[in-house]
Amino acid sequence: MDFQLVWQYFPDLLNGAWLTIELVALSLFVGFFLAFICGLAALSRYHLLRYLAQSYMFIFRGSPLLIQIYLIYYGSSQISWIKDSFLWAILSQAYWCALIALTLNTAAYTAEIVRGAIRNIPQGAIEAGKSFGMSRWLLFRRITLPQTLRLMIPAYSNEVIQMLHASALVGAITLMDLTATAQNLISRTYASYSFYLAIAVIYLVTTYVISGIFRLLERRLYRHLRLNEA
Amino acid sequence: MNQEPIIVADNIRKKFGTNQVLKGVSLSARQGDVVTLIGSSGSGKSTFLRCMNLLEIPDDGKIFVDGEWVQMRPKPRGYQEPADRHQVDRIRAKLAMVFQNFNLWSHMTILENVIEAPIHVLKKPKKLVVDEAMALLDKVGISGKAHAYPSHLSGGQQQRAAIARALAMQPKVMLLDEPTSALDPELVGEVLRVLQQLAQEGRTMIIVTHEMKFAREVASQVVFLDQGVIAEQGHPEQIFLSPATERCRQFLASVKWS
Questions:
Q1: Which of A108, A130, A174, A202 is most buried, taking the most CB atoms under 10 A from its CB?
Q2: What CATH number is attached to the domain comprising A140?
Q3: Chain B residues close to A150, C-beta within 8 Å
């Protein structure tokens, strides 16, 4: 492990890490809302909505993220009506393609988490809300949503970490994220061991921070399960 | 006394799949009445109670609460559904329910459970509601648990909290669905005592119960349901001491209520 070499190029690695975090954070943020819409649609009583949501989840969970990135980036450039429309301003840029692919991908996985969580809410809690005259929206906001978020945490913390690591694939369409930056440096310095180890540590530290955030969240949201405060 | 009924269920029918659970059940109660619904498991008493606040939508029949009939509109194949969701919400807010399994909201403290609907459904000011809630928790004997979460309470305490939550709505009628059936035997008494007190205060209640001694003592009217119909109804002394029907006699003998 050549510390000096890694230290010399550390600013480049940090730049790469920043792009990684930016892509992951943005896609998780937007994906989370999409996931709720999709997860609720998947439980809708309307066949069409359910069918659309389930197809979307099936497609994005059923195919590799790398292929999705390729399809959005390379595939869109071969479709003439896209190239002729305003969409091309977005889809011609690797950054936006990566962001879209990551967002749609995490939304599909998270939608499944949302769906599972909603189905696991005790039916009695919902019935109690109804029996006191809560409107649908009030019931969702005050009962369903808070309980869903609590039930989602363990699975969703996995999804976030998974996304951090999966984002390494965006290097395949020219983006200089953390992994691509390291590969670039390796091709110049041949110090593969040092740089791969260095970025592994950076991913590890980031993961540790994410886990820590979720632990704090759990401590806050799971107060109702802890016995020592009774 | 006000002679107009506060709640009426008229000829309620309900089918689950091919199982006709309610075959035309009618009931009316006036203010201050305590009606106990008794009958064996599967007789339809819980379903009937849940039809009154439309947690189950009756296939046929009408519900009247506090001056208004629930508007229904026909659905295909002879069923019906409520025509006005807001009316249903409004009526439910007047009929607080207490469930067999308490159904407290696990992510809220006991106090938060009690103040939730008065604040968000009745839109009452928080400060007032909190004061009322504390008084109610005191009344059911768990004011010390106001800031605990439901999972920290015993079953009997949870059910008393659920009763306080229902009372906080200042309901016209309380619907209680087997309020002691999920409790350990030694915890049943504390809940029944609270309910007895409410009955003495003149609360209008409709109670599905398997506690026959309780059903007899608190009721102004006892309804015996059997296989989806009212087999017998009347004053508790009459039902319990000289049941007119063979089915009711058998049922009372089988539960050994005395």
A1: A108
A2: 1.10.3720.10
A3: 107
